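P.,

For your records, the input lines for the assembly:
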Amino acid sequence: MNKMKKTILILIRVLSIGATVSAAIVMATGHENTNILSIPTQANYSDTPAFKYFLIANIIGSVYGFTVCFLPQESSLLRLVLISDVVMSVVLTSSLSAAMAIAELGKKGNSHAGWQPICGQFHNYCDHVAAALAAAFIALIFYTSLIFHSIHTLLYPMSLL
Amino acid sequence: MNKMKKTILILIRVLSIGATVSAAIVMATGHENTNILSIPTQANYSDTPAFKYFLIANIIGSVYGFTVCFLPQESSLLRLVLISDVVMSVVLTSSLSAAMAIAELGKKGNSHAGWQPICGQFHNYCDHVAAALAAAFIALIFYTSLIFHSIHTLLYPMSLL
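Structure tokens returned:
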């Protein structure tokens, strides 16, 4: 049972790395060229500070995830991993929320501020951003489950779950 | 020492309530009327979904803070409070990040997307938003210290800190 538990935990950790790596790659490759009023225009993640923050947070999340996989399974380290998992999930939540706020603006605009939606002109770019946000959201679900498991293990060390 | 520790914890909890209540009030009252090209225009938090989410998150944070103050100081409840503090701080982080992304756009705009800054026309409104964000940031610092204290207490129940 203990071996199965460890396998599931490593699987969740690997899936969370996969999700943050996917989010970073999809965001970084999401650029599109189009002509607006015959003027060549390009949309790129680097045009938006929130998307740059999102990319950096997901790269850090990926590197952190890899590092944790190679740590020995000791109780004292488990506490450190719990705290760093909490910090990492706060950083990922923060970057995801900021990117979502801008993505929502890109899709719907804000008529009060005079900000027009841009997804009508940049379909592929918006699809890329949406996919990156979805991947980061999945990573957050994995992180949340890892945190709750760590808290559970620290509170009830003898539990089989 | 134990009594002093409890007093400090209650003080931090009360300060975090003060910060979330301030953030909610300052955001909710931050509207401004001005004339742009002789057309009367109003800026209001309710024009922006991210600011509405920010207001709701801070109201929930305030109500939650009040509720926790009246809970008995039992060990089993401390675990529940730790988990709900983590959830609450994730919600506050998320709303703060989304609001900050939009506030940054309001201040600097995004020339690539054709979104002009609006803070030149709405000084008071932008000052209100900045103050609300600062209050929410302070609330988050208090929540973080409460979470780390709860983790410490659960891991080392006999510690005086």
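Two observations worth noting. Helices of chain B lie at 2-28, 49-69, 75-108, 123-155. Residues 75-108 of chain B form the longest helix (34 residues).

Regards
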